[in-house]
Write a structure and sequence with these properties.
The chain is mainly beta. It has one helix at 106-109; strands at residues 2-7, 10-13, 18-26, 33-39, 46-52, 59-60, 68-73, 78-83, 92-98, 117-118, 122-127. Strands 2, 4, 5, 6, 9, 10 and 11 form a seven-stranded mixed β-sheet that branches. A four-stranded antiparallel β-sheet has the order 1-3-8-7, with no helix packed on it. Strand 7 and strand 8 form a beta hairpin. The chain is globular. The N and C termini lie far apart (40 Å).
Length: 128
């Protein structure tokens, strides 16, 4: 089992920046991909970004490309989501997820079914 704990969410204004963190614990050996998803009010959960724990094939949703950056600190078992130029439509609960498989196939990396472990989420609210 892998436990994930997100932090860093909050209320910000449009145009602001925010950095989310996800602390991994438990059986972290053998983790494949690290990812962020989000669920906006009244919508389904959607992919935001992913990166292999060991590797560089990174994917971003078109809606966040150029504004969000995923990074990792393997020594500290932490994955980050740096969000810049935030928009009201970025308002959502943000979830960290990990898989046991490395996905460098964009199709598979984007599917929430590809990820076995999930955090509880952290709320990000962007006011206009």
């Amino acid at each position: 089992q892998v436990q994930l704990a997100e932090s860093g969410g909050g209320l910000v204004q449009a145009g602001d920046s925010l950095r989310l963190s996800c602390q991994l614990s438990g059986r972290t050996l053998g983790i494949g991909n690290l990812a962020w998803f989000r669920r906006a009010p009244g919508k389904e959960r959607e992919f935001v970004t992913s990166i292999p724990r060991n590797g560089d094939c990174t994917y971003y949703a078109d809606s966040v490309k150029g504004r969000f950056t995923i990074s990792k600190d393997n020594a500290k078992n932490t994955v980050f989501l740096q969000m810049s130029s935030l928009k009201p439509e970025d308002t959502a609960v943000y979830y960290c997820a990990v898989s046991r498989t490395v996905y460098c196939d964009g199709h598979l990396a984007l599917r929430d079914q590809s990820y076995a472990y999930w955090g509880q989420g952290t709320q990000v609210t962007v006011s206009s």
